[in-house]
Specification:
Elements lengths: L20 H21 L5 E9 L8 E6 L38 H21 L10 H28 L1 H13 L21 H23 L4 H39 L12 H17 L7 H9 L20 E9 L5 E9 L4 H26 L24 E2 L5 E2 L1 H11 L3 H10 L30 E3 L1
Antiparallel strand pairs: 1-2, 1-7, 3-4, 5-6
The protein binds fe (ii) ion (FE2) (2 copies).
Length: about 475
């Protein structure tokens, strides 16, 4: 196994694809379908070329190169992190055994399902973001959008490689289906809810890359622990690319907040709607929406499927090797969110104790939530330094949920239970209204001049790969 990619191949890879002609041919016949999908469902803004990072290596010495690339000619490749020949299963009933190079027959269906669900999210986000190029606030942002898009495309390749290489005819059929389902489609939608929502404006895009891409980071983190070594190595490398996607979200919201603070100070008012900035209550509502739909991606509070995945060694916990327990969890317990009955026999937002194994979704969601706090802290520092008193917060875990214990109730962002009628009446206080969305959309006018930026967002502190902000990141067609 080499770590350097073979770029003479039609499909750049570090998995010695040329040694397996059948697999190579199968992937080469999927390739035109992928390109057709990219042309019809990918970015709509015509460009000549874009300053993009391309993965070329998985080693520590640097794994990517930067250069202007015509997007349809981007070298989407297959890269697995280096193999650790001594790697052992880190948890579950196979703990301590050597990891698997092949798919064990008894876990085939489950592993295939996990890979398909992960694979389905990757092209979905490209579809959701396809029209954003038309309203980019700067060439820098436009470039970042396209970078995220081509890498999500590469993540699709990563999952399709596993399906082709290890799951036979069924795997190849699933790989086709990944191109046929489409975000928001009525007939064949993407598998998970958040990936069928629209990303109609750039505030949504930053919130999506902050909150929803971050779900991806946590899912990949659990799959990186898998006893199925090729899956583990694939996810390890994908996590490297994900870091940039989250940087786009984190600093994107930074810059929106920064600009809003500047306009608030300049005009000595909280009401910046008429002044071309995004009011903080609108930022909060967008945050509420994207955070709550992303919490749903972690599934129900308890799951026997996920318990079985863990015991079998298919999917671990976030940073499994740092957990100080027996890595089997057969006798541990965990408190999970639940609807409980209060003294008056009424349903209330509470918690209940379950076996740690069945509560693994909750464990992962909590890791995610504490990570999300980091962004809010950072945005609040910008508010504080700007001398404004308002603060952003993460809404309560029961707010606006469609999956899990709180799917059947409504609650405020503070975690106060609401009747259906009150929710109807008050949801516009918590979630973006048509008026909010229309206002945000009205700000979305493209700025394609080098070094220029839209008025609703501050410029970034740093450019990409040491280039200045006014670099020619994108050449439009
Ligand atoms: Fe991804
Ligand atoms: Fe991503």
């Amino acid at each position: 196994m080499t770590t350097t990619a073979d770029y003479h191949e039609k499909i750049p890879n570090n998995v010695s694809l040329h040694e397996d002609r059948r697999l190579q041919r199968a992937l080469e016949s999927w390739q035109p379908n992928f390109l057709h999908w990219w042309q019809t469902m990918g970015p709509t803004l015509p460009t000549q070329d874009v300053y993009l990072r391309t993965a070329v290596n998985v080693g520590r010495e640097g794994w990517a190169q930067f250069g202007h690339v015509a997007m349809p000619e981007y070298r989407w490749g297959i890269f697995l992190a280096e193999r650790d020949p001594g790697r052992k299963v880190g948890f579950g009933e196979h703990e301590g055994e050597p990891v698997w190079d092949k798919v064990p027959g008894e876990y085939r269906a489950e592993l295939q399902r996990l890979i398909v669900i992960q694979g389905d999210t990757e092209p979905a986000s490209v579809e959701q973001q396809r029209n954003l190029g038309a309203t980019a606030p700067s060439l820098y942002d436009l470039r970042n959008l396209f970078q995220v898009n081509v890498e999500e495309g590469r993540h699709l390749w990563a999952m399709v490689y596993l399906l082709h290489a290890y799951f036979g005819r069924e795997g190849r059929e699933e790989a086709e289906e990944l191109l046929h389902r489409n975000s928001g489609s009525l007939d064949s939608p993407r598998i998970l809810g958040a990936f069928n929502e629209e990303t109609p404006d750039w505030l949504s895009f930053y919130m999506f890359t902050y909150f929803t891409d971050r779900d991806g980071k946590y899912q990949l983190g659990t799959l990186k622990e898998s006893a199925f070594d090729p899956l583990s190595r694939t996810c390890e490398f994908m996590l490297k690319e994900e870091a940039h996607h989250m940087m786009v979200g984190t600093t994107g919201v930074d810059r929106v907040v920064q600009r809003t603070v500047e306009v608030m100070r300049e005009h000595d008012t909280d009401d910046v709607a008429g002044l071309g900035a995004i009011p903080l209550p609108v930022v909060q509502k967008y945050l509420n929406f994207h955070y709550s739909v992303s919490l749903d991606l972690f599934g129900g509070e308890t799951s026997t499927n996920v318990a079985n995945y863990y015991t079998a060694g298919l999917k671990g916990r976030w940073l499994e090797d740092r957990r100080k327990d027996d890595h089997k969890l057969t006798s541990d317990a965990i408190m999970v969110d639940a609807l409980t009955e209060n003294a008056g026999g009424e349903l209330a937002i509470g918690q209940t104790e379950v076996l740690a194994l069945t509560g693994l979704n909750t464990d992962l969601r909590r890791e995610y939530i504490s990570d999300c706090q980091g962004g809010v802290k950072r945005w609040n520092r910008i508010l504080e330094e700007g001398g404004v008193k308002q603060r952003l917060t993460l809404p309560h875990v029961a707010f606006n949920r469609k999956v899990g214990a709180f799917a059947g109730i409504e609650a405020t962002p503070d975690g106060e239970k609401l009747s259906a009628g009150e929710w109807q009446r008050r949801q516009g206080e918590f979630l973006p209204t048509e008026v909010d969305k229309t206002y945000v959309r009205s700000l979305m006018r493209p700025v394609y001049d080098r070094g220029k930026i839209a008025a609703w967002i501050a410029p970034p502190r740093n450019g990409i790969n040491g280039q200045p902000f006014d670099y020619d990141y994108v050449h439009l067609a």
